[in-house]
């Protein structure tokens, strides 16, 4: 479409990005129809230029053009689609609204060639209903509820209805998850059916939702507001970070355990014992004056051996207490 030829009189056509770094920004433009190219007029906001290296336009960004009048063929095509949808809705609404309670006989189920047919009866699924009085021809109707008696669970009672069901985003998610569970547990297929009987690509649903019944991988970060509890051993391939940790002997904070098992903490309390091949303690000690490193002990006995008369010093025999059996120490002499 030649945008330049369909600008509304008195309006200025603008291109507004719907996603990407420039999402929400409005740009005036020139359009070259032969090249199918937009020439955007740069936008300056708060001393920031759009687009720029900081706010680039990337492949996959979505945009919309405003201030133009769509060609008649666009309007005609939209009216045709709306008319088709209206006819389809009218056809559904024109059908008689019925609700039926049907009891399924367990003997009939046991005679069927498919032994899993009872498990395939599920809420939201469809069955073909036929009755000489109500519906001589087969009629596709939705299962609204299933009741299974405890005495005979293989003989369920089905509540069938073709009443329209109002859906919202939450119910759509629930139906998608039900289809995914049903496909995994019953059919082992990549195709299931939703409540409207439409085919659902389970592989596509697998990209949107995490499985509660099978191992799965989340491609983004998951935040648990109420904490995380693991019933079995948890594995962290790239380590653990606690409390917005920062590494550093003096200025570090928090705690980390890397993928090799090296850990860094603020304090460590051990109620049992510590077992290690080597201990390295970082401590600075300053001693003023002389420091002697020698053996020590306890004095057991002191005998004054100073000769009588005037002598320049006194002498003593000092006996040290044995530290172990057979320990002998030479006497010490003092004055």
Give a quick rundown of the structure.
The protein is an alpha+beta fold.
User: Overall 3D geometry?
Assistant: elongated
Distance separating the two termini: 116 Å
Amount of helix? 10-25%
Class from helix and strand fractions: alpha+beta
Strand content: 25-35%
Characteristics:
alpha+beta, 5 helices, 335 residues, four-stranded antiparallel sheet, 17 strands, 18% helix
Describe the structure.
With 335 residues, this protein is of the alpha+beta class. It is 18% helix and 25% strand. The protein has helices spanning 72-94, 106-111, 117-120, 169-187, 202-208, and strands spanning 14-17, 26-32, 37-40, 43-45, 48-50, 63-66, 99-103, 126-131, 135-147, 157-161, 191-193, 199-201, 240-246, 253-257, 263-264, 299-304, 316-320. The strands form six sheets. It has a four-stranded antiparallel β-sheet with strand order 3-2-1-6, with no helix packed on it. A four-stranded antiparallel β-sheet has the order 7-10-9-8, with no helix packed on it. A hairpin with a 4-residue loop joins strand 2 (26-32) and strand 3. It is elongated and about 140 Å long. Mean pLDDT is 78; it is low at 182-197 and 330-335.
């Amino acid at each position: 479409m030649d945008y330049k030829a369909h600008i509304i009189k008195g309006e200025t056509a603008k291109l507004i990005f719907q996603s990407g770094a420039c999402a929400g920004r409005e740009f005036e433009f020139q359009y070259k129809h032969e090249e199918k190219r937009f020439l955007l007029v740069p936008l300056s906001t708060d001393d920031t230029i759009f687009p720029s290296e900081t706010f680039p336009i990337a492949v996959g960004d979505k945009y919309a053009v405003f201030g133009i009048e769509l060609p008649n063929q666009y309007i005609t095509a939209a009216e045709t689609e709306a008319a088709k949808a209206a006819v389809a809705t009218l056809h559904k609404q024109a059908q008689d609204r019925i609700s039926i309670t049907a009891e399924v006989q367990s003997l009939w189920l046991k005679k069927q060639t498919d032994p899993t047919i009872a498990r395939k009866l599920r809420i939201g699924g469809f069955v073909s209903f036929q009755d000489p009085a109500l519906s001589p021809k087969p009629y596709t109707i939705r299962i609204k509820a299933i009741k299974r008696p405890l005495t005979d669970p293989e003989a369920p009672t089905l509540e069938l209805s073709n009443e329209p069901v109002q859906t919202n985003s939450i119910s759509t998610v629930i139906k998608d998850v039900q289809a995914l569970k049903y496909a995994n547990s019953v059919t082992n297929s990549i195709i299931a059916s939703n409540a409207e009987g439409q085919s659902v690509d389970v592989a596509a649903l697998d990209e949107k939702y995490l499985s509660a019944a099978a191992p799965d991988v989340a491609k983004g970060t998951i935040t648990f507001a109420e904490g995380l509890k693991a019933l079995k051993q948890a594995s962290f391939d790239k380590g653990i970070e606690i409390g917005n940790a920062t590494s550093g002997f003096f200025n570090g904070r928090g705690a980390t355990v890397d993928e090799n098992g090296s850990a860094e903490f603020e304090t460590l309390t051990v109620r049992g014992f510590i077992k290690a091949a080597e201990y390295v303690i970082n401590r600075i000690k300053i001693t003023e004056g002389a420091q002697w490193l020698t053996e020590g002990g306890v004095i057991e006995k002191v005998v004054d051996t100073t000769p009588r008369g005037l002598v320049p010093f006194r002498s003593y025999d000092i006996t040290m207490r044995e530290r172990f059996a057979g320990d002998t120490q030479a006497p010490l002499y003092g004055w």
